[in-house]
Amino acid sequence: MPEPAITRWCLRLLRAISRLVPGRDRDAWQREWEAEIRHQTVTLEARGALDWRNQMHLLRRTSGSVFDAAWLRRQLTRDAEVIQDARESLRLLIRQPRFALIAILTLALGIGATTAVFSVVNAVLLKPLPFAEPERLVMLWERQAAAGRERDQVAAANLLDWRDQAQSFTGIASYIYWGLALTGQGEPVELQTGRVSPNLFSLLGATPLLGRTFHPEEETAGRERVVILSYAVWQQRFGSDPSIVGRTISLDQQPYQVVGVMPDSFEFPDRDTQVWVPIAYFPYEKTRRSQRMFYALARLAPGATLGTARAEMQTISRRLGELYPKTNGGWDVLVEPAKEAAVRSTRQALLILFGAVLLVLLIACANVSSLLLARGAERQQELAIRGALGASRARLVRYLLTDTLVMALVGGTGGLLVAYWGIQTIVSLDPGNLPHWNAIVIDGRVLAFTMLVTFTASLLSGLIPGFHAAGAQPGEMLKGVRGASRSITASRLSHGVVIAEIALSIVLLVGAGLLIRSFARVLQQDPGFQPSGLLSVSIFLPDNRYPNDPQQVRFFEDLLERLRQLPGVTSVGGVTTLPMSPIGVDHDMPFGVAGAPSETADLRPEADFRIATDDYFRTMGIALLAGRTFTSQDHAKGKPAVIINKTMAERFFPGGSPIGRVMYWGGGRDHPGEVVGLVGEVRHRGLDTAPRPEFYVPFRQVSYGSLEVVVRTAGDPAGIADAVKRAVFAQDAALPVSQIKTMDDLLDTSLATRRFQLVLLASFAGLALLLAAIGIYGVVSFTTSQRTQEFGVRLALGALPRDVLRMVLRDTMVRVTIGAALGTAAALGVSRLLESSLFEVRPTDPITIAIVVGGLALVALACSLGPARRATRVDPLTALRAE
Amino acid sequence: MKLTYPTALVLQALARGNHHGFDIMDATGLPSGTVYPILRRLDREGLVASRWEKQADAQRAQRPPRRYYRLTAPGEAVLAQVVERYKALEDVRPAAARARTS
């Protein structure tokens, strides 16, 4: 059948229009339209409706294809423009390598530092705990609001009652940090142990790699000699033996059967935990409600919420308070989401760091922005030509933004490298403060964040220069007029950017300055003892082999004597817990002073309680202020003796010497003691923590199976570590000696958290200062070069070079002053966030602010000196001729 | 993307079973110069997908294969939003009632 004439006409028209369609789309376009036209005619014909009206309608539709073709053409142009712009930007960057290098490096540093800190924020704050349904896990704490005790551990007796009574949880598990000596596998070694209730693993939803976890009945005494190994211990101590399950190993000289091995990813309660054994509560643990030493973790039951659980625990704790008013009165239970408990101590510091690094990023953007403003001035003619050739303002802005985007993309890629390196640095600096359950890595979310930061950075740095440069009047520019008014706007914008940079830098520098001053103050503190020349070693005697006091006393007497004989050793002592050390037994002890109000007080005061050997004070270098230290006469049958520190004397023994007075410790009057000595105060819990009331009792009278032994040497204490180890083994070959450290190391470790925060914040502040310096230099160079003619005229009219120099420097200092004022105001507000990290320095410390502002002014002055000098060397004739 | 009223009409026409360019014009009453650029844009944004009709089906109808458009899942989500915004979309004809308009 011949084709109707209208079809032929329409197809002819279509072919003509198709020339508008870009080549890549043309074939498909034509096929689509042809098929539609033919379909329409076939349908109309079949219905006998191909009359003239419908024919005209078809022709109209066909002619509409011109809009379709034009749309496709426009898209092509737009796509091509983007590619063309990108290519142009790259070419421009290569042509100006110095500019490109500075801009890209600046962005890479800014983006990289931000990404690195975000990776930490992501791993610690954003990712959930690596357990099943982690949002339903909660920590339970005992709380005594009246005494300011927000989160105390839990007494086993209370925990067992909660377990029986609470309906809000599918289970409550308990755990405690413990230590067991592994023997029979080479040198005895102390294993970090989690004593955990058997239900802990099922509560966390954790399954073993080999074997099984604990059975409920293994919570009972006599059944508890089973152990689960961590992956690391299984690998390192047992050579990844696949048949380890079922084998018996010796812990504290007792046989324990290995029932399982946990996977490498399982870390609980911390990454140092090496083995887990079930808690079979000792009889005294089940009854002493005041001995709050267990951690409690629970999982909310289906249907229970945090609110209902809190309400229920309030009721239960009130009931227990009524039943046991002496130990439980005034106490209630804090139910806290496990994630919150885990990040509580790090959240604020991390967010402060993140804020700081965002400021660095802003400074980096401001820097690039000012560089671009300067370059925009040089490119005015190019843009004018583009404008004259028909490019719209939007098109020019797009062109210039592509420019920054290309830079930011290159910078962002470099930033990822910087971030990778930054993460390694942060992890290596971390003294163990950062929660570790999620590895700090660059994952999908971090990559997405980096992309976002890169785009934002390119927008932030490109928008102002883009709009400014694109606003040029083509005619004016083409005439070669140096567009005085536009240069002035560019200069103003640049100055604005410099002011912002200075202000932001001041905020960071003040923050870092406050931390540095705090750190210096901390280092100046007298620890109360002489740390150099001291070596410490932890000795823990297992109950089963040293069950009674005389055995323990004899052991330590012999060991101390043995150590005293070592060459180079000048004295040896021992104490239940050393200053600055996280190891040891450290708890508050209630006491009353005979004849003082504290003797009869309902709520007795508490002080830090230590058991010490005769020579402990002399060995540590703790000053004896009055009376005497312990001697061999302070034995079990001797008169009970006590030594107190200065803080305790001042607070609880006012008026007169405490020597000779009697006090009672441990609640009641069962443990009397006569104060025989007064010693100096020790900053026990860190140089930045005020000394607390402290009392010591002699180890012969209050024996204890664990002491931290300190050895003072004439030479390097680390040098005798091996000899000390050998001496311990000579006395008991089955005792582990794993914690052997110099006192200087302990002191250093105690400062690690403070140092970590300081180093990071100071690095960011240093980076900010560097970027600001580059920015100031760039802007002053640019603005002085813009004023070449003005300086030429001035010099021609008789101004002296030093007048020009003064003018340039004065201008810079005006910006610095404005920036400093704004920055100081902001810093005064922001530095309060650091308050908890400061020591003997107020957040508004005027000295820090003065040093920072003064220092920044000097840097700004130094940065503008070069460009200012160049301005004085302008040759008036050349400058005027250029006009 | 900008969701104009004509775009909403095109989305609705697609949802009602009109899958070819001219059918969509019939269903919406919009001219070809409007419908096609909208289709191209929706395609670019991933709100519609397109494929070619099978050769055999086309031969039976004695014409070349037509291009077939359909809504993607994001397209359907966007449609749900615009139906809320433009109540009058209910007037777009379903494919079954399709007839040529003039």
**Class from secondary-structure proportions of chain A:** alpha+beta
Question: Care to count the β-strands of chain A?
Answer: 23
Write out the strand line-up for the largest beta sheet of chain B, numbering strands in chain order: 1-2
Overall number of structural domains of chain A: 4
Q: Which structural category fits the helices and strands of chain B? A: mainly alpha
Show the helix and strand layout.
The complex is a heterodimer of chains A (883) and B (102).
Chain A lengths: L4 H14 L4 H24 L5 H12 L1 H31 L1 H30 L10 E8 L4 E4 L1 E2 H10 L3 E15 L5 E8 L3 H5 L5 E2 L14 E4 L1 H8 L9 E4 L2 E8 L13 E4 L4 H5 L4 E9 L5 H18 L1 H4 L3 E6 H41 L1 H9 L4 H37 L14 H27 L3 H5 L5 H41 L9 E7 L8 H16 L4 E7 L11 E7 L12 E7 L3 H5 L3 E4 L13 E5 H7 L9 E4 L5 E9 L14 E5 L7 E8 L7 H11 L8 E3 H8 L1 H35 L1 H9 L4 H30 L15 H27 L3 H7 L1
Parallel strand pairs in A: 5-10, 7-9, 16-21, 18-20
Antiparallel strand pairs in A: 1-2, 1-11, 1-12, 3-11, 4-5, 4-8, 4-11, 6-9, 7-10, 8-9, 13-22, 13-23, 14-22, 15-16, 15-19, 17-20, 18-21, 19-20
Helix pairs in contact in A: 1-2, 1-3, 4-14, 5-12, 5-14, 5-15, 12-15, 12-17, 12-23, 14-15, 17-23, 17-25, 17-26, 18-21, 23-26, 24-27, 25-26
Chain B lengths: L4 H11 L5 H8 L3 H14 L2 E5 L2 H6 L6 E5 L1 H13 L17
Antiparallel strand pairs in B: 1-2
Helix pairs in contact in B: 1-2, 1-5, 2-3
Textual characterization of the structure:
- The complex is a heterodimer of chains A (883) and B (102).
- With 883 residues, chain A is α+β, with helices and mostly antiparallel strands.
- Chain A folds into four domains: 5-81; 134-343, no CATH class; 482-524 and 743-883, no CATH class; 546-733, no CATH class.
- In chain A, the strands form three sheets. Chain A has a six-stranded mixed barrel with strand order 4-5-10-7-9-8. In chain A, strands 15-16-21-18-20-19 form a six-stranded mixed barrel.
- In chain A, helix 1 runs parallel beside helix 3 (52-63) and helix 14 packs antiparallel against helix 15.
- The longest helix of chain A has 41 residues, at 338-378.
- The mean pLDDT of chain A is 87.
- With 102 residues, chain B is mainly alpha-helical.
- Chain B has one domain (5-81): Orthogonal Bundle (Arc Repressor Mutant, subunit A).
- In chain B, 51% of the residues lie in helices and 10% in strands.
- Chain B has helices at residues 5-15, 21-28, 32-45, 55-60, 73-85, and strands spanning 48-52, 67-71.
- Chain B has a two-stranded antiparallel sheet.
- The model of chain B is unreliable at 96-102 (pLDDT under 50).
- The A-B interface holds A 28, 31-32, 34-36, 38-40, 42-44, 49, 53-54, 57, 60-62, 64-68, 71-72, 75 and B 20-22, 25, 31-34, 36-37, 40-41, 44, 53, 58, 61-67, 100, 102.
